[in-house]
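Write out the bound-state structure for FE2/S2 (inorganic) cluster.
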Amino acid sequence: MTEVSFSLNGTPVHLRDVAPTRTLLDWLREERGLTGTKEGCNEGDCGACTVMVTDARGTRALNACILFLPQLQGAAVRTVEGLAAPDGTPHPVQQALVDHHGSQCGFCTPGIVVSLAVAHAAGRQDHDDVLAGNLCRCTGYAPIVRAAQAACAAPVPDWMREAPPAVGRRIFTENSSFWQPESGDELAALYDAHPGATLVAGATDAGLWVTKGLRDLAPVIFLNRVADLQRIELQGEHLRIGAGVTIAELRAALAPRFPALDELWRRYASEQVRAAATIGGNIANGSPIGDGPPVLIALGARLHLRRGDARREIALEDFFLAYRRQDRAPGEFVEAVTIPASAPNCRAYKLSKRFDQDISAVCGAFDVRLEADGRVAAVRLAYGGMAGTPRRAPAAEAALLGQPWGLPAILAARAALAHDFTPMTDLRASAAYRLTAAGNLLIRWHHDLARLPVHVRGVQA
Amino acid sequence: MPKDGIGASTKRREDLRFLTGKGRYTDDINIRGQAYAHFIRSDVAHGRIVSIDTAAAEAMPGVLRIFTAADFAGVGGLPCGWQVTDRHGKPMLEPKHPVLADGKVRHVGDPIAAVVAETYEQARDAAEAVVIEIEELPAVVDMKAALQPGSPLVHDEIGSNLCYDWGFVEENRAAVDEAFARAAHVTTLDLVNNRLVANPMEPRVAVGDFEAHNDQHTLYTTSQNPHVIRLLMGAFVLGIPEHKLRVVAPDVGGGFGSKIYHYAEEAFVTFAAKQLKRPVKWTSSRSEAFMSDAHGRDHVTRIELALDADNNFTALRCLTHANMGAYLSTFAPCIPTWLHGTLLAGNYRTPLIYTNVKAVFTNTVPVDAYRGAGRPEATFQLERVVDKAARELGVDPVELRRQNFIRPDQFPYQTPVAVVYDTGNYHATMDKLLEISDYAGFAARAAESQARGKLRGFGVAHYIEACGIAPSNLVGQLGARAGLYESATVRVNATGSITVMTGSHSHGQGHETTFAQVVAEMIGCDASQVEIVHGDTANTPMGMGTYGSRSLAVGGSALVKATNKIINKAKKIAAHLLEAAPEDIELKDGKFTVAGTDKSKSWVDITLAAYVPHNYPLAEMEPGLEETAFYDPSNFTYPSGAYGCEVEVDPETGKVTILSFTAADDFGNIVNPMIVEGQVQGGLAQGIGQALLESAAYDESGQLLTGSFMDYAMPRADDVPFFQVDHSSCTPCTHNPLGVKGCGEAGAIGSPPAVVNAVIDALHRAGMTHVTHIDMPLTPSRVWAAMNA
Ligand SMILES: Cc1cc2nc3c(=O)[nH]c(=O)nc-3n(C[C@H](O)[C@H](O)[C@H](O)COP(=O)(O)OP(=O)(O)OC[C@H]3O[C@@H](n4cnc5c(N)ncnc54)[C@H](O)[C@@H]3O)c2cc1C
Ligand code: FES
Ligand code: FES
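---
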């Protein structure tokens, strides 16, 4: 059985025979006739399709174009059509957008309205961040930001507070086109039995395989209801982060412990993508330019893999074997990643064309522990965008190890990077730029730890 | 005065439907029984189509039919709406532009075949099964290479990649050269105006419908000008007379020029709907948009400015290579010529100007108008070269401009490049800019930046724009194959409400609000009594649509004319009812009064009398109260303004941060200040996008490298500052009834040079005087490279 139940603008919806990769956007527009939600790119870049989703994990703004219907099981969904009061009174952000001329052609507007309404409910004031995933070509944004500021004063309307609907447990058959396990054990058994199935967590990669790559992913195992993969636990000196933790949840949990890394997570894609994307997906996809792995490797992360009842643990860097090839057996999945609970010297820097919502050209993440005499006792330098996988820089690390911490050692490490990497040239950056920038990031790190003025925003490719 | 009349910042009536998801855009239209079209596009830039085998695909589930060029044998190609005559008196080369590629593919994205199937998925799946063999040919992407002997030819049959070699004003050529020979100083600048993608947030969509019972075609399309599409597609491509063809452009999610043109997909769905007797829908994906919407700009220019010993501009000489792409898009030829060369006087008294424009075919997406269209290119090169001259001469760039500005007492001003500016006051806008941007306090701010290790710079630019496009007889002489009037029908209903049908089209500009304000003001009624209808050829008079900042200046003038006709007739009716002479009737606050008496009739008394003519001068007048007017302007309008940009450059990384941006514009009279401000803001964001972020890049083989929002950097909220926008300077247009000039493109025209000038200023103040120019976009790596050169 392939049923999905959720609520849409307050009305219960029960769907049968749901194709696992039917997107919410297509369903809304084509089947439900709710055309207010717009398609501007179908790849998660523009936010015209933003909807509000409330489930056990709270209320989030998500891109409907890369959200599969089964991911909505047990959620309350609100689209632009469902934000005004039942009597038609506009939501405060809708009114503010009229007052401040925040809409011109109106095409980005539904997505903007939903993004702002979700942020409004959460009392957010960081409007540029909230809007990083919403493109508008008409207004120049200032009127929208003014509207967002103006709406802050208004109370959150009661119709915005809604409980997700109660849903029963579904029974899936052997030849279902998808499964949606509720626990790690269930997942382990299912995936072991169906190693050919595709795991889908936040679908921010998998969504594109469908909308752009036209791939058929069935059968699919959805991870979003596996509650025990979504925990972050303090285990002695370590944090254990479940694979299903979203980047947004991770960012919130890490902010007090690793304030210096917050900027990296803030620059990861956009509000909508961070709210969907999981750290497990970010690791498992094996992308050479993913933002998660370099910093996790620098932190000395250990990866926990599970297949059936068999579990193993490896250093994260050992997971990445070659370009898009990982040390993961059929039927094996990422259960969690553990990192030290604190690392005051760890920093991460991302270079990209634009500040928000952009893929890294180079991402560098570094950590160091010093002896009492100021010599380098342990060091981990990790890079993304420099090779076919996220990787450490052994030669540069060797140049630092045992040396007195300081600019000379850093310069030596920088020089050694040429032995570690032969990066490639592509549209984002040339090989020479990548190598130079990678080296300069080490200097920046040095200055940063010395509290010289640097901040990651200043560094863009 | 009605509360929502002219001059009021009336809130937009269209907003509520947009904000609640009730807008009705083309993709929201689904017709019962519709089939879906999917285009198979070339993935190489240049190649010969050897064979197309559709047999396997044809047999796939849901496939209705697969079309190729052969199916369009009896059909015309996509027409070009502008003929440019070159400097030798020869017409431009005008290659064929088939609906589906015929024999050759000429750019990545060129449509080769189209699959129509029951569902979109089936159409896409079947497209995978169509086997197309293409013999790849060497592609040419660079304009100068395209003009070299032996270069691959984009169109073999026309024998050259040079579309035209245009000189303007050709008769001045020798005089300009002489002036340069005599000059005390010559400033030369080589620059590129970067290729851009308009990227309205709504991708293009077309739905074709055919009703067999009355042989009626309907095309729903994302267009800025449905009547133009009906004319071009009906008359030149498909041979459908206007009375059998209806074109509807409902809510349109932005255009910026890219939705002016007649595109192949529109003709395709209209054609296929009749062939298949089914409605056919096509929705562009974003990646298709990048490789099939017309691009903008893409000029490579050398500009030279001659000055005398007193720093007066004595002559200007330019050579521009303008990329046409692989085919001539609808208005492409006029952009680098008549919309560009005629603006090279800028705000200055330069007496002699000569420009040579070589339009070149390359294996890239066709290039046509994008917000500003030709005028941003003119303004950019001019304002950059003036700035460079000031630096070379060691004079204040503001002062050099002021000294050479056309003086307020010189209007109307005949420029040496054909156009006559009716009004303007450039000294006033410049003063306003310096005042509100606190130019006087700049030095202190620069010192503060320096203390933080940052380089601060201030750049100005002054633009002139010719818009309110345009007098038909003039553009006809210049090669336009269309008139450029605008139209309005004002229908007063029996009980007094008013329906206005306009030939203009709104895709973000808020006509439904502003046009109603104009009528409300004239009649003295509440704006809520006025409904504005646009976008449907079936119920609007023939109009040329919206672009070139023309809607209020031209469409609004038609509206004023039609409303005046209404008022005149209504006064006659009132005179009859009040037994007075029509000349004695006054209309005020929606009431007709006999002057000097208290005898009056309400608006509704009159409108009812018009439709229930029991007591009516039927012998003299027809009943009813409906009037149509066409307005053809006697000149362009000439908005102008001074823009100032203050930046900080990070010397370590080359990263440019815009600290403030100020715009002091003169748009003439203003109907709705809020909407005007919105138009300027949006234009500025696009101009800043061009200056700092955006660039459509091709590799040598003609592959588009920037084919998604990931790779083509559109400004996001964080990239754009809050702007200070002022339009208190006002020299009303003298030749249209509203005295308005147009404001839609200004922001995109004036901002790129202001940004670049500011960055150069910052570097010069820091002693890096070797940097005289950086090509846009000014990415950190480009600025860093220039600083460290
Ligand atoms: C607009 C946009 C912007 C983006 N920006 C960034 C960015 O700035 N930085 C960045 O790093 N990435 C970015 N991404 C990429 C993407 O968000 C990340 O890779 C994301 O972390 C993937 O997580 P997910 O949960 O969405 O994975 P999914 O798409 O659900 O899955 C990705 C892959 O991981 C596998 N998988 C998922 N979970 C597990 C598991 N527990 N065990 C084993 N395999 C698993 C899936 O089978 C699939 O192969 C962006 C994506 C989009 C669409
Ligand atoms: S349509 Fe652009 S993000 Fe979904
Ligand atoms: S209002 Fe047109 S894209 Fe935002």
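---
Residues 31-137+201-254+259-292 of chain B form a domain with the Aldehyde Oxidoreductase; domain 3 fold (CATH 3.90.1170.50).
The radius of gyration of chain B is 27 Å.
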